[in-house]
Amino acid sequence: MNLLGAWFIGIAFLILGTRVTAAAEQNQPASAVSQAASDAATAYDGKDWPKSAKLYAQIVETAPSPRAWYRLGVSLNKIGENDKAIEAFEKGRALGLPPQFVEYGIAVVFASKKDKEKALEHLEKAAQNGLSQPDQLSSDPDLADLKPDPRFAKILEEVTGNQKPCANTRENRQFDFWLGEWRVVTTQGETPAGDSKIELILGDCVIQENWTSAGNIGYSGKSYNIYNTALKRWEQYWVDNAGGNIFFYGGLQDGVMDYWTDELPQPDGKKLKRHLQFIKLAPDAVRQFSRGSTDEGKTWFVEYDFTYHRKK
To answer: How much is the mean pLDDT over the chain?
Structure first.
């Protein structure tokens, strides 16, 4: 079981800093701590569980870290020290070990104790806390006895969904009508305005716009659109190759993606507020309508009015 590989790459420097700080506080040279960590890792990777447990037990006494406590828990469980293993995982939790890994480790302990109910209970907690390694879950031999239980299949489905948490969240899918490759024209007169490719990126959490203006003017830009779960609103950040940038915020109103800006100072001294709307006209047509106001929203003028036609 090695769920933390990818996660610990991201916090490696933090862990190293913790170890070095602890070593300094206890008058131990950082090189000695590093050597101990290296020896312990070698034992752990080689599945020499008694040696791994012994070395990580020494490390958590001198330079405790989430990684060390986690690996100590795994090693203790492998040599049958189940209660001490659970204690080690909880110690890791107290230092910041993500709860999904704590719960997974504890689930494995209960599975090894043949306590299926407790194992499934903690495995469900791991899934609820964001565990996102379905391949590891489905292939872990320590959990083999749980697989025939229908609850295991449901947990596996939840863990698979955690890999792309935005993919099936209703709010994150509200702007999907804009996805695709588009030929863009002015709404009045259908003069070519440009081409745009709208695509999902970053686990389907972000909608990226890739705009290129028509003709040879050389203007292009991108926008990044995401549902802000904390503020419960959509946000767009536009950037272009002329150094421009605009921040919009809003949400879906009656099927229309409704974006606004704050009042922003302009070169002429006025303050400009923008109102940008994306209106689904048909499965293969979207209108993008932008207006501005320099009098606190009393009156509005059209900045541009485009219609997107899906390329076939």
So the answer is: 91
